[in-house]
Amino acid sequence: MAITFRSLALLSIVSLTHGSLVVLAEQPVAIPHFETTQTEQKQLPRFSSGPMPDKSPQTGYDLKLEDHSSHKALNIGFAHDPGQGNYDGVVGSPSDVWNFVDIGTTAVDYLRHTDATSSTARLRVSRHDGEWGINTHQGIYHGYIYDNCQCVDLETTLLDLASGRYRAYIYAHGDAPNQNANIETFVGAKSLGTKSTTKKRAYQSRSWKEGNQFVTFEFDVTAGESVRFISHRDGSDYSMFNAIQLLPITPNGIN
């Protein structure tokens, strides 16, 4: 459940003088509006921390999409849907289909490929109760999920992927230089190692660069193997996910 502030009321400050109420001052206060997003979820957070990300249209970007793409790729965004035409991931096109995961969602059993066809894959997300946004970005990198306890490393797991070779793009950074992530990838029980996003202000750059806003891993998946991404806390006590792009590839490049 997300809390937003959509209306104002006047708060009157009064004083009791000689048996009569006297209005000393009035000031506006925000009235919270509670919204529940209907998503497939195993649990809901008790509260949402911070404002919902700004959903105004993206303007003034020089982010460039790589022109190679796969119709059977999977795009997953967290916390914020910038709207069709504003999907600015490293690969794909602005009109590709994305799957968005709202705050508190821990299970999504229906995912769509970038061409809107159904995928066999299912998504699991570890418990989290916070979402925030990066002010300098309004696309898929803007919103991210995290946990307010600042004591856990968030995990996302893809189940039932089709067998094949994949390249994953994992976007993970908060809205401060030290709020980076050290991403570890597992295929089945095997760790493929870790890669970190930057601790410098380059995380705000409007040009995509691996190691700034995202990291990549390339791997093979056989039937029944899961793919798990762990966002280890690194420069701060925050762990987060902004977005994931998963592309099936061949020895000669993208399908």
Cα radius of gyration in angstroms: 21 Å
Point out poorly predicted stretches: 1-17, 19-26, 28-68
Q: Could you tell me the mean pLDDT?
A: 80
- The geometry reads as globular
Terminal residue distance: 39 Å
The total of beta strands comes to 18
Summarize the biggest pleated sheet: 6 strands, mixed
> Percent range for helical residues?
under 10%
Strand content range: 35-45%
- What structural class should be given to the helix and strand makeup? mainly beta
SSE order, one letter for each helix or strand = EEEEEEEEEEEEEEEEEE
**Total DSSP helices:** 0
Written description of the protein model:
The protein has 255 residues and is an all-beta fold. The protein has strands at 2-17, 20-35, 74-78, 99-101, 107-108, 111-112, 118-119, 122-125, 130-133, 143-146, 154-159, 164-171, 181-187, 190-196, 214-221, 227-233, 243-250, 253-254. Strands 3, 4, 12, 15, 17 and 18 form a six-stranded mixed β-sheet that branches. It has a six-stranded antiparallel β-sheet with strand order 5-8-11-16-13-14, with no helix packed on it. It is globular, with a radius of gyration of 21 Å. The two termini are 39 Å apart. 35% of the residues are buried.
